[in-house]
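Re: flavin-adenine dinucleotide structure - here you go.
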Amino acid sequence: MNPLLTDLSVLRAAGTVHLPGDPWYDATRTPWNLAVNQLPAAVAVPRSIDEVARIVRAAVGLGLRIAPQSTGHGAAPLGERPLDDVLLMRLHELTGVVVDPEARTARVLGGTLWQDVVAAAAPHGLTALHGSAGDVAVAGYVLGGGLSFYGRKHGLAASHLRAVELVTADGSIVRASADEHPELFWALRGGTGGNFGVVVALEIDLLAIADVVAGMLLWDLERAPEVVRAWAEWTADLPESVTTSLRLMRFPPLPELPPFLSGRRLVVIDGAVLEDDERAAELLAPLRALAPEMDTFARIPAAELIPVHMDPPGPVPGVSDHAMIAELPDAAIEAFLAVAGPDVDVPLMFAELRHLGGALDRPHDGALGRLDGAYALYAIAVAATPEMAAAGSAATASVAAALRPWASTGTFLNFADRTVDVATAFDAEAWAKLGDVRRSFDPHRVFVAAHEIEPR
Ligand SMILES: Cc1cc2nc3c(=O)[nH]c(=O)nc-3n(C[C@H](O)[C@H](O)[C@H](O)COP(=O)(O)OP(=O)(O)OC[C@H]3O[C@@H](n4cnc5c(N)ncnc54)[C@H](O)[C@@H]3O)c2cc1C
């Protein structure tokens, strides 16, 4: 059935649905990434698991496809596709966290944000393998692998997933775990979940970490050549207890920014050290020897790790690019500085290298078994206008291109917020198995994920 010839208003009987022209259509179709203009046939905003199931059944009955989306942090690939036969399933009203302090687990509903999980776990002396931004949702992040500042010690967030409940294409609620639909559970652990159903709940392991040595070191961008070299050397030989990021950052002069950021070009190293204070100080000493202008590394409550990375506090328009880097020899550092360092005038917000390895490199039983690289590169530019988007897209692509000679063959889909060859994120065996699981659980390709496995 062609949905364009159908009266989609019948969807309203199934739940909260906004159609083009409705007062809430524009507000609810707008993702976190404000540069993305997604124009679906309808937007659903369910508040319960049963409502998700009713809407899935009604949409499939009308011949619509369904794109699950929690926040729209990873919306860019969807915005690049026509969505006129797609119902966008926004999950921001389906939220909630229940912590089991004895079992050290949390059950979170499908649209829950990391900041709410961290806040609920903290009173029990627990935390989770969250990422750098508190307003990223658990679902998209974990289903894509999940790279945390605890990652080198504890691995990918997907490897700490206990169970997933999802509404599949026939509207049934399926629970996947090591014992229930194990092949689906395997696929959901890093295999980009939006391909198999609408995830309505996840059970995750929590970590017994009440406080952590974390913070940032900051220098003017002019110091980048020596700081990047020192960080590359430092990260080459570090225990797994340390996970850090290095960014070359450019801030516009904005009154809402603190003076140490406003209008500044900086090099920033931040992250977490899971050691006692003395050992942490010993490990940080080579970076501190570079006399940073600001040094905030100290023992802080684990719940305060999120703001350390200074990700934007709310939605922004952005374009980005990404590559997995196998090694950072001096020539690679030269190439990185040539496109993002102090001598160039480029419209980048930041060019970031996250240190990988350790437990992130040790295979676990999931579709994304390990991260194939020593560093993950992520470059982003503000894209408030189409002209800024074009210039930013070129600038971020040039950072990825400059480091390509040292790239591994892999892709980390969480950092790939543009249309990419999804197969490059997996080894050949995992890719074939993901196709099997997709054919088994979504044979008619009802679901539309940001990164699709065997699209229709
Ligand atoms: C500022 C910023 C900081 C970030 N920091 C990190 C980081 O530290 N570590 C890291 O690993 N990643 C990080 N990311 C990337 C982020 O993890 C991905 O963009 C992720 O996809 C976001 O998940 P989401 O659900 O919030 O986004 P969405 O855009 O809502 O979802 C992305 C995709 O995930 C799937 N999905 C989401 N929710 C559901 C659901 N309920 N059911 C089924 N499928 C679903 C869909 O396929 C969807 O297209 C960051 C991104 C940004 C913009």
